[in-house]
Amino acid sequence: MTIHSTHPFADPDPDPVRRLRGRLGGAVSLWTAGSGRDRSGLTVTSLMLAHGEPAHLLGLLDPDADLTEGLLDAGRGVVQLLSWPDRDLAEAFAGTAPAPGGPFRMSPFEETEWGPRLTSADTWAGVSVVDSREVGWSLEVTCRIDAVTVGDDEAPLLHRRGRYVRPGA
After folding, report:
1. What integer pLDDT is reported at residue 7 of this predicted model?
2. Distance of CA 109 to the CA centre of its chain
3. Any idea where the domains of the chain sit in the sequence?
4. Which distant-in-sequence residues (6+ apart) come within 8 Å of 163 by Cβ?
5. How many CB atoms lie within 10 A of CB 19?
6. Where are the beta strands (DSSP E) in the chain?
7. Superfamily of domain 26-161
8. H-helix or E-strand containing 92?
9. What pLDDT is attached to residue 169?
10. Could you tell me if 25 and 158 are in contact, meaning their C-beta atoms sit under 8 angstroms apart?
11. Residues 125-148, mean pLDDT to the nearest whole number
12. Strand-pair category, 163-165 with 109-112
């Protein structure tokens, strides 16, 4: 048996753009859309806010994700910021952790006019889709912010270099 000084599953030829994206980091949001059995959701960290009248939220979504189709079909959705205790929920909606019965069963959600909202989310926005376009391997979705609630966010969930981190960590 040989002991290696590097990770045994590390990519021998890492993608520099992917590595740059990992170093940018950001708040972890959960985008949800639909209602009843047609609900869908996706964990998203590639997003930005464009302030103005009206304000807009732009997100880079996986074009193959159920949420992307659901959001475009519904024309509206909910974007909520996750907190540190929501790590398992974030993994489930990202499709990287098991969620028996689906991720919506892991935490309580309430119906809003924009779609399902995580009841524990202190900060969230109800959005309406304005436009979408392909950008690289993603679909850039531009949404108008129709309503917003800003909470304390005492323990925000951040993602950097492939890991969830606390602010200041």
Report:
1. 62
2. 16
3. 26-161
4. none
5. 12
6. 26-27, 29-33, 40-44, 47-50, 56-61, 76-81, 109-112, 115-118, 124-135, 138-149, 158-160, 163-165
7. Electron Transport, Fmn-binding Protein; Chain A (2.30.110.10)
8. helix 87-94
9. 57
10. yes
11. 97
12. unpaired
